[in-house]
Each structure stands twice: as C-alpha cells, then as structure tokens.
Amino acid sequence: MPDPSLLSLNTATVRKQWSLPDIIDGCVRHGIGRICPWRDQVAAAGLNASAQRIRDSGLALSGYCRGGMFPAPDRAARHAAIDDNRHAVDEALVLGAPCLILVVGGLPRDPDGKIASKDLAGAREMVRDGIGELLEYARTAGMPLAIEPLHPMYAADRACVNTMAHANDLCDELGAGLGIAVDVYHVWWDPNLAHEIERAGGATPSRLFAYHICDWLVPTTDLLLDRGMMGDGVIDLPLIRSWMEAAGYRGAHEVEIFSANNWWKRDPDEVLATCKARHAERS
Ligand code: ZN
C-alpha cells in the first residue's frame, strides 16, 4: 500500500467546484497534505495571499502547473513565451513549489489560434531552445523544471514531447535543473516505460521530479476531459509505482483528473474522499 502521506491533489481535479482557497481548506479537512496548484487559480486568489494560505494550512506543494508552450511562429512571440515562463518560475518560488511543470507546446500557432506550420521537427527544436533559455533563468533562481511528456494525441496542440525517452534525451542535452514529471495518463502505453523510468531515476541527480496518477478509461469519450479515477480504468498503477520506487522515487503521488462529465460534477468532498480511498487501495 502506498504511503498515505505521499498523496497530493492536483487542484485541477476539483477546479469546477472550488476556488483555490476552498481547495486548500478541503485538503486540510480531508487530511491530504500536498497540493499542486495551477497558475490561473493562483492568479484568481492572488499570489501572495495564496502563498500565505498554503503556509498557514501546513500543506506542502508537489509542483506548480504550469509553464511551457514554447513554439511560436515568430521570434517576438517566442520571446513573449519565455517572458511568461520566467513569471511562472517567480510564482513557483513565492509559493514554495519543488518544481515548475512544463507542458512544452505543440505546433506553432498564429495569434488567432490557428496552427501556423506543419513542421513538427521544427517545433521540437523550438521546445529544446525554449527550455534551454528558460533553464538559465530557472537555475539561477533555484527552481527545477519538470518536462511532462504528453500522450502523442496532443502532439499538435499541447506538447510535441510525447515519450519518456524524448524527455530523457532533452535532459541529457540540456543538463542540470531539468527533470521529468511522469504522468501515467500520458505514458502508460509506452513499451519502454520501465526502462525510461529506470534511466531517469539512475541519472545523477535523479530526474524523477513528479508522479501524476489517474486512470485510462475504456472507452475514453473525450481526449482531454475524460480521465478516470484510480481503479476505474486499465492502468496497472501498483506496477508503475513499483518502477518509480525501484528507480529511487520517494516523492508525491499527485492525483490529476480532468473529468467534465463525472468528477467535476460531483460533490468535491466526495471527490477528495474517493481520491484518498483509491490512492490507498488501487494505486
Ligand atoms: Zn500531469
């Protein structure tokens, strides 16, 4: 059974029902000791007020969501993305986060949101260059960056880093201060997953910065907003956790569930109680 104190709530899991202050109070009430907040929720509640409330509540952070989105069709827009990411690093420091999660971005888009290019290899170069540039700032600030490889179905619109191998390769190339957020929803299908987790954990220092859990439902009815609660789908969560632990990971188990038609419609106290029970029994 996983250590209950490692349970963390990614605040997107009850974002439709509760504001960040409500979520902090809810976690305290349910004995969940860690959270990973999102930038928009922090902005809505105020950065300093949120940091103070988190400190006063005794909660620890398991990460801060999120930076990234590096590719853009021109130099000015790429610079603007880096600037925004520097702000995200600053916020993560104020909040006391252990790392900033990066969803790196897909194909570049015009200002109106239309995909501007089919050059996927070029987008991946922009991601590498963008992370490299941000990393100089983040290293000086002392904020680790965690690349979250996303399922390949998001390669066009959210992240063109789609495998643990690609994330590990970027860490090899770009060096200290960069690691990986392993989200089971995105990587459970990968035949090389065990090997790449071992590779990330075997690096010096370890690159295993975060571990996100939920489940893959069959059928999945929405590519983004139909994630399952642990135990309701097909991911062998105890097996993947055993790989993380064998690779030396001792950090949080962060529940991250986007679920427009199920969990976002339920009583948030029921959602938190279920997260706790399923973490103990099915993760
Ligand atoms: Zn995640």
Radius of gyration: 18 Å
Number of strands: 9
Tally the helices: what do you get?
Answer: 10
In terms of DSSP E residues, the strand content is 5-15%
- Bound molecule types: zinc ion
Series of secondary-structure elements, N-terminal to C-terminal: EHEHHEEHEHEHEHHEHEH
Tell me the overall shape: globular
Class computed from helices, strands and strand pairing? alpha/beta
Overall pLDDT confidence: 98
Residue share in helix: 40-55%
Which oligomeric form is depicted?
single chain
Strand order of the largest sheet: 3-2-1-9-8-7-6-5-4
Terminal residue distance: 8 Å
Q: Can you tell me the residue ranges where pLDDT is under 50 for at least 5 consecutive residues?
A: none
Largest sheet: 9 strands, parallel
Report on the structure:
By secondary structure, the chain is α/β, with parallel strands linked by helices. Helices cover 43% and strands 13% of the residues. It has ten helices and nine strands. The protein has helices spanning 20-30, 39-45, 47-57, 75-95, 120-141, 164-174, 184-187, 193-202, 237-246, 268-282; strands at 7-10, 34-36, 60-61, 64-68, 100-103, 145-147, 178-183, 208-213, 253-255. Strands 3-2-1-9-8-7-6-5-4 form a nine-stranded parallel β-sheet. Helix 8 packs parallel to helix 9 (237-246). Zinc ion binds at residues 148, 183, 212, 256.
Please describe the topology of this protein:
Layout: E1 7-10, H1 20-30, E2 34-36, H2 39-45, H3 47-57, E3 60-61, E4 64-68, H4 75-95, E5 100-103, H5 120-141, E6 145-147, H6 164-174, E7 178-183, H7 184-187, H8 193-202, E8 208-213, H9 237-246, E9 253-255, H10 268-282
Parallel strand pairs: 1-2, 1-9, 2-3, 4-5, 5-6, 6-7, 7-8, 8-9
Helix pairs in contact: 1-3, 4-5, 8-9
Zinc ion is lined by residues 148, 183, 212, 256.
